[in-house]
Amino acid sequence: MNIDNTASQMRKGVLEFCILSIIKLGEAYPSDIIDMMKSANLNILEGTLYPLLTRLKNAELLTYRWVESNSGPPRKYFSLTEKGAEFYNELETTWLELAGAVETITGKNK
Amino acid sequence: MKKVININFQGTIVPIEESSYELLQQYIESLRRHFANEEGKDEIINDIESRISELFQNRLKGGSTCITDDDVNAIINNMGRPEDFDEDDNIGDADNTKGQKTKSEKSESFSQSDWSWKGKRLYRDENNKILGGVCSGIAAYFGIDPVIVRIVFIISGIGFLAYILLWMFVPGSNMVENGARKRLYRNPDGKILGGVCSGIGSYFDVNPWLPRFIFLIPFITFIFRWGHFGPLTFPHFLSFSFSPGSFIIYIILWLVIPEANTTAEKLEMKGEKVDMNSIKNSVLKEMQEVGQRVGKMGKEMGEKMGKMGMEAGNMAKEKGADIGKEMHFAARRSSGVLGNIIVTIFKIFMYFILGCIALAIIVALFAVAIVAIGLFPLKDFVLTDGWQTVLAWGTLIFFIAVPVIGIITFIIRRFARVKTTNKLMRYSFTSLWILGIVCFVGLITSVARDFKTFSSLDEQVIPLQNPAVQSLEVVPFQNINYRRIGWFNLEPFGTFGTTDDTAFISNVRIRLIKSSTDSFQVTIVKMSNGNTRRYADTLKSLINFNVSQNDSLLMMDKAITINTTDKFRNQYVEATIAIPVGHHIRINKTFGYGNRVRFGGFWGGNEWYYYNNDNVNDYDFSYGIEYVMKDDGLYTLNGQKSDRNNSDWNDNSSDDNNTVTPPATNNESGYRYNQGKIDSLKDAQEKQIQKMQSTIDSTKSVREKEVQRLTDSLNKAKEEINQKIEKLKSTTFTQTHCQQKYPEGYSFIMHI
After folding, report:
1. DSSP 3-state of B505
2. Model-level pTM greater than 0.95?
3. Which residues of A, range 51-110, sit inside 8 Å of B by Cβ?
4. Total domains present in chain B
5. Residue B59: closest CA among chain A residues belongs to which residue?
6. Owning domain of residue B56
7. For residue B484, is pLDDT > 70?
8. Which of B80, B100, B128 is the last residue of a domain?
């Protein structure tokens, strides 16, 4: 068993949940998302974020609009769709259950 | 000092150092490859490019005059290289391969990325490799177990060369993901002929003379082995151990491998300097590991085989379920479940059919090539020097070899997905092939002209020492009776062995007829074709055909010699042996061997046999069996009658003769024979009667028709007359002066 592997598997599982929850706060630009995650000490490569966003968008969980930018090409601002909001709620329930369960189980070790 | 160029990057002008530009380009290319299987591939790349462009703008606004290597590297580190993605990415390629093992993961990853034909590329799977990762790459491409591919590879003996070729052409999965990767290019800078060897040299990081030497080995050995092999000895022709083989491989490589023209391509060709060390190290490491891996594979393979045997049924069931699941997932991805399945199945069928067609074409072309090569020794005996020889070579090279090479090249390029659409190459291939067609047509017409005319025919009676001998056996002069039997036997002239400039062709036909006298008689007729009558006659007179009698042996040449100066022009000898009634004849078996050779058919007509006008037909016979000539034909010793080679009208006339003088034999067979004859005569008469009847019938019907026609026309005339009378009657009222002037009958005649 590889510790890095297991850890990254764990991170992967919650990545989409985190991104959706950031976007839920309001329209977000990818580098904003990166910054926010960094500030929460959850490092993610930009190159990983873009395909993930595209996938979520293709799954109709996200939508975006173009915003002109004075530094470079226009930016894509992402926001949740209705479906995305539903999806997020489901994930949240799952997460809360999971977090509670994990807390209960691992708490016994302390 | 560095060169700065301006690029238009996502709609903004960016001044960038040239080396940084190369770096950026490589990075984006590596991303493109990484996301090749992704659905929104272009969009993702676009987003990333926009972001990079934005970062560039920030940098430039910060006071930089241009983008440098450091800037690009910093950005790339920020964005992450494709190989870094695997860690974070939840559906990276690494998971895919791992996913093969655990089912739940497999179906998940499957549903999202893997099962799409479009955009799928053949890579060598360097994560699961034994030697070069070719087999595991193929396995990943088709979604099957690599062990199976390996077993197939080893058992079918597709072999080493194919493996090496695939190793070279198929990009490795690791190479692709690194920003700097290595590709096989032809090196235009260090080239001697096509730059293939120097390209291979820089690819494998060796002195270009090493590949050159490998290519030259066959030529060097060729010089030493010249005595043992002809220039086109076939079994060695395609193998690498013989010069044409390596030459062809060189040409194919030349056509398949793109030339490194741009700086980026040249960098790719050599790989980066940093890479070179790492590659060397990794190669050394590989060498050690290969041994271990091979051992492991052997074990694994053994296990697999055992398992496969034991659990074949189980596995089939599981696989079936798996495939069902996979199909289900694949289908669920898009909306049309059934449609997708149908499309998938259809595609598989299409690939299968296309593969079959391609294979058939290749096999056919190879067959043509083999036949052409096999027939090539013929050339000296048929073709005149000069144009015809040139055309023959042109046909061989352009008409046959060019499409073979072209198709092989096409297929390899297809598999390697070489994207460069080289119009020049296609055009040159097509024009070379058209040249080949022209050569072929020219050759055919030119040869046809040489065969156009027939020689004059004259019979030559061979005087026999003792024509009244009781039985005659026809034997060849020398008892050479060997055939060259090789695995590849396509030499019509070689049947009796050839020397360098003479060949034997067994264009001799023996006819057996009934003699009108009571002694044997031998006549021969020689024939030839040629471009003019005179030349055909000359060739005819050059045919050397000997016959001589030695008691009961009639010695005869069984073949004609053809030499390279006089050429083969359908020379042909027909020897007619007239056998007197009651005498025996046997043709030695050796005359039955060998094939008659004849060019003709669509241009020469089919005058293969010469019929003399003696109204006597010849009899079929088998070689090596003794026959006896009787009044009514040729019989074997146990009383079987041989058929006649004949045409109808001759048959009838001889039948008539027989009825006039029936043979006076009283034994049973004679009776039966008589009965048969009478029956056949009856038949003939009946036929005759029928024929006459039918002619009578036909004349009858013709006459009836005639009568019918006459009556019809008469009736018509009658009607017309009536009508006219009617008319006249009506006109008499209006034109009274007419009636006054002429009598009725007169005006009627005038009208007619």
Report:
1. strand
2. no
3. 51-55, 57-58, 69, 71-76
4. 4
5. A71
6. 1-80
7. no
8. B80
The reply to whether B509 and B633 lie within a common domain is yes
Using one digit for the tens of pLDDT, what is the confidence trace for B3-15?
A: 888 888 887 888 8
Top-confidence residue, B162 or B713: B713
Of A44, A73, A76, the CB nearest to B12: A73
Look at A50 and B87 and tell me if their CB atoms are within 8 Å. no
pLDDT of B263 over the 80 cut: no
| b/e per residue B395-426 (b: at least 16 CB within 10 A) | bbebbbbbbbbbbbbbbbbeebeeeeeeeeee
State the complex-level ipTM: 0.85
In angstroms, rounded to a whole number, what is the distance separating the alpha carbons of residues B346 and B349? 5
% of chain B beyond a pLDDT of 70:
56
Do residues B435 and B465 share a domain?
no
φ, ψ dihedrals at B489, nearest 5°: -125, 95
pLDDT of residue B656: 37
**Whether B403 and B439 share a structural domain:** yes
Q: Write the DSSP symbol of residue B236.
A: G
B411 and B528 fall within a common domain: no
Strand ranges for B453-601 from DSSP E: 453-454, 459-462, 471-476, 502-505, 508-514, 521-527, 529-530, 547-550, 553-556, 560-563, 572-579, 584-587
The helix or strand, by DSSP H or E, that contains position B43, with its residue range, turns out to be helix B41-61
State whether A45 and B78 contact (CB < 8 Å).
Answer: yes
> Which residue of A46, A56, A58, A63 is the best one to mutate when testing the B interface, meaning the one whose CB has the most B CBs within 10 A?
A46
Tell whether B483 and B559 lie within a shared domain.
yes
Q: May I ask the CATH architecture of the domain A3-107?
A: Orthogonal Bundle (1.10)
- Residue B282 in any domain: the answer is no
Same domain for B44 and B74: yes
Q: Please write the tens of the pLDDT for every residue from A17-47.
A: 888 899 988 888 888 888 888 888 887 888 8
The share of chain B scoring above pLDDT 90, in percent, equals 0
DSSP B692-722: HHHHHHHHHHHHHHHHHHHHHHHHHHHHHHH
How far is the C-alpha of B700 from the C-alpha of B518, rounded, in Å? 52
Q: CB B50 to CB A75 under 8 A?
A: yes
Regarding whether B30 and B72 lie in a shared domain, the answer is yes
Residue B716 lies in a domain: no
| CA B438 to the chain's CA centroid | 19
Which residue among A4, A54, A73 sits closest to B50, beta carbon to beta carbon? A73
Tell me which residue in B10, B35, B57 faces A71 most closely, judged by beta carbons. B57
3-state class (DSSP) for residue B516: coil
What stretch of H or E contains A65? Answer: strand A62-67
